[in-house]
Hints:
The longest helix has 17 residues. 43% of the residues lie in helices and 14% in strands. Strands 1-2-3-4-5-6-7-8 form an eight-stranded parallel β-sheet, sandwiched between helices. The protein is an alpha/beta fold. The protein has a single domain, classed as Metal-dependent hydrolases (TIM Barrel, Alpha-Beta Barrel). 44% of the residues are buried. Strand 7, helix 8 and strand 8 form a beta-alpha-beta unit. It contains ten helices and eight strands. The structure holds zinc ion. Belongs to the metallo-dependent hydrolases superfamily. One of its GO terms (molecular function) is hydrolase activity.
Amino acid sequence: MRIFDPHIHMTSRTTDDYQRMHEAGVRAVVEPAFWLGQPRTNMGSFLDYFDALLGWEPYRAAQYGIRHHCALALNPKEANDRRCAEVLAELPRYLLKDAVVAVGEVGYDSVTPEEERAFEAQLAMAGESDLPVLVHTPHRDKVAGTRRSLDVVKAAGMPPERVLVDHLNEPTVGMVADSGCWMGFSIYPDTKMDPGRMVAILREYGTARMLVNSAADWGRSDPLKTREVGDAMLAAGFGQDDVDQVLWHNPVAFYGQSGRLDLRTGSAGLDYAGNTIKRG
Ligand SMILES: [Zn+2]
């Protein structure tokens, strides 16, 4: 089973995780910009973080046979930071980098006016940079927050096929399916979705435009949840091709819209999808 985790915060994880992920079949990840867990005290903290997602983390991942790309943004949680405008002014030059395959995560956390302004500004940047967008949906009042996020995306004129709306569950999947946006599901050990509920959603809504992630970070989370979903799909009667679509082809198709997704590697004659690299 080959796995592309489309949303994981590897900065918060150990090298043991990289090793276990590779053993489970993970060959590619996208790491969206996240918050520290505590407020940043200066502007350089944001920029050092962006630079680490572009430099150090891909290097670390490659040592374990995993291809690493990132999505950059001012995270919704940090959109309320007083340095918001400064970060947004720096962001466009970062979005030019080759390893950036989306703007994200953006959206609402506490649904404040500051968050809305940062969300709209970054949707505009995605349009200008020709990048797809990863939209985080709030954990509280999720139905209203998701509805409002879809409205903001639509008002910004973003084509729905370039938008991934993440952290969905049973009450929010339907409206995103109807919108034409891609649907993301974070599988956590005890909150949000679990593999059984995920399989039920795939049965009801099908496998098109569906992405499954571990969203693993510094909180209670598990980077192998993507593999658990793949196993649960097979146990429930889905075929290998269905699993490959959800866990590999869908994230490749979504982030491939950036024109920057690069799954080749020079070593061992294999690319990250497990295919032999053709020479000449
Ligand atoms: Zn996240």
